[in-house]
Each structure stands twice: as C-alpha cells, then as structure tokens.
Amino acid sequence: MPKHNGPDLDAATQSDWTRFTTELADHLASLEPGAELSISPDFEPEGSPRRAMLLRLTAEGTLVCASSGLGSPPPPWQPAEADGIFVVEDGAAWVDRLCSTVVEQIRCAWNIPHPSFLFRPGAKAPTAPTPDESACPPDVAGPLLETFGDRVSVTPDGVVSIAIGPVIAYVTAAGVDEIRIHALVVERIAGRTRAAEVVADLNRRHPRLKFLLVEDRVHVACTIDADPFLPQHVVNAAGRLAKFAATVDEEFADHVGGVVPTHDATEQVDGSADPSDEELPPQLMTLLEMDAESGGKVDADDIVSVCGPDRAKIGRFEAFCTEQAESWREYAQEAMLRGESAAAEECALEAVPWDRVVRALRSALAAIKNLDNV
C-alpha cells in the first residue's frame, strides 16, 4: 500500500489498481486447466453479505469468473443458476480483458477503494488462526510437553498453557504467521510510578522479552515468527520466558508494588481462564514489536496490514497507546522531581515507541478516510 498524500492520492490509487490488474492477468495466464483462484475482501463488516470471486481455467481453454455480491452487473456478466451469483467467461487469450472486467466490479460493485483491502491473488492462504483466535498449530504442544512435562495443558479448543511457579504462560496464535507467549506476572499494583520504573528496567535487562504495564498489572510477552513454523523456536522462546517467570515470587511482586497473580486451581487444567482478559490485543502487541524490529519505522501500511481497514479498532488502539505514552511521560516527570535522573530517562524512553505507534495509527486512520472518499 503506497503512501497517500494530498493531490497524489488519485494517481497513486489508480497506479496500484493497474498493477493489481496486471498481476492478476499474469497469475491467471499461468494457471493449469482446472486450477482455481479466489479473491475476496480482507475485511467484511459484521452481518454483511459475503463477497467472493472464483476464477478458473477450463479444460476448453476459457477463463471463467463466478462472483457473489455484485448486485446486477452489466454485460458481459450473466446470471448463474444459483441466486445472487453472476458469471463472466472469455478466452484465455483475452485474459487482460477479463481481468479489466473483474477489477471494474471489485472497485464499483464491491466498493473496494484499494487493492490492499483484498485477499490478493497469489497470496498465501492462512494456515494458522486469525489474530482474534487463540488456537495454536497442533504441533506446538508436543515439543512443549517434552520440555515442560505435565506443566503443559491444552484445552479442547487448542489453547496451550504452561504453569511456571505462580505464573501461567499462554501460547497462542498472534496472527497467520506469528505465535505469541504471554503471561501476567504481577497484579493489583498500588503505585504505578514505581512499577513503571521497574518495567523500564526489566525491558532494558531482558531485550528478548517485552514487559508492559497495563492499568494495575505487569505482563511479559514474546512473539515467534511462524513463517515457516518451527516448533523448536517456540520451545526456545518459552524457555526464555520461563527462566524469568521462575524468579517471580512475593518478594519480586512487592518490589513492583503489587502481588503475585492468583489463579483458580482449575484454570491450568481445564483452560477456564481466558487469556484475552489479561493481555493486550495481539494485534497491538504485534505493532509494538514491528516498531522495535524496524527501528521505529512502523507506518500506516504496517497498521493496515495488521489491523485491516477497521477504523473502530484502529481508533481504540490509538486512544490506548496515547494514554500509555502520556503515562510514561508522567512517570518520567515524577522521577525527575525526586531527583532520580536515571529512572526519569528510562521512563521517557518507554514513551517513545508508544508515540511512534500513535503517529502510525493516526496516519492509517487518515489514509482510510481518504480512501473512503475516493
């Protein structure tokens, strides 16, 4: 997705649609007889009719596209036997013409403002749960069981958890190509300023883990690249988190200003605990890690690639990140007033990535608004 600025928006959008049409034609031209290609929006509003296209090369050497969600398209589209389905067919030699016809309906009937809002032809189909799901690939549990034994539990819906002393770490899918391990380590924190200083210090001393202060709780998390998925990477990451979690006790929690988390005895056995109640949204955690890995270069394109064109979700993330950045600056000011310059510097640095993500989220909201007006 390109950068859209002012008067260049229309030209940039048209250029991207032209490139998309060419790529689609190239992909269709390489199909074997009987092979199929599907196109659908990456995001569907809740309750809206499903929109999808299925393109295939027939044994007779023609290209056929069947589509839903077109309303009443003009010729050469023809109604199929199934209600709400329309079909267009052309010779393989006329693939460019067919693609122009298809893309016209994607833009007009489906009202898709930009190709980045589509599940693209040639894109890899999801092989892992979506970011809002929590199940892991089935081959995660086995290696973890070999390493952690009966401390590992797997719920019927595929959520994997590891009991490490007083901490329960959850292993979940953070996206189609990421696995995330996260745990609540301290809760019911009374003094957030003190906790902020400790979290800043923990992030400095444990660069491969991410510590977050959210309301009155401290979380620790790490994310593993799952493209390709290698179970040993999950085992290694779980080992790093477990090494830290083993140090969590009443003394540590008191140092942070809270208490060790309490878990019902059945939580790790039957999975009755819902990890989503105690963590940042996985997509927001992904954005923070993308910012760190890119050296602070996260932008609007990254936001849309992770969140989709969901303005409400991006708006919620923007408000949350803004609050986090402001809190860290307040902690820095309080530390400075106490004459603790080192702690003030650490807290000020913690605000920086939140500020960068806020700017990217706001840029994404502006880009989506501009595209909506195209």
What separation lies between the terminal Cα atoms? 15 Å
Shape: elongated
- Uncertain runs with pLDDT below 50, 5 residues or more? 1-7, 121-134, 265-278
> Strand count, sense and closure of the main sheet?
6 strands, antiparallel
Question: In angstroms, what is the radius of gyration?
Answer: 25 Å
DSSP, total strands: 12
**Total helical segments:** 11
Question: Would you give an account of this structure?
Answer:
This protein is of the alpha+beta class and 374 residues long. The chain has three domains: 14-42 and 50-119, Yope Regulator, Chain: A, CATH 3.30.1460; 140-256, Yope Regulator, Chain: A (2-Layer Sandwich), CATH 3.30.1460.10; 282-372. It has helices spanning 9-29, 95-108, 141-148, 192-205, 231-245, 250-256, 267-270, 282-293, 300-307, 311-337, 341-372; strands at 36-41, 53-57, 62-68, 78-79, 85-91, 118-119, 152-154, 160-164, 167-175, 178-186, 210-214, 217-225. The strands form two sheets. Strands 4-5-3-2-1-6 form a six-stranded antiparallel sheet, covered by helices on one side. A six-stranded antiparallel sheet has the order 7-8-9-10-12-11. Strand 8 and strand 9 (167-175) form a beta hairpin. The protein is elongated and about 75 Å long. The model is unreliable at 1-7, 121-134 and 265-278 (pLDDT under 50).
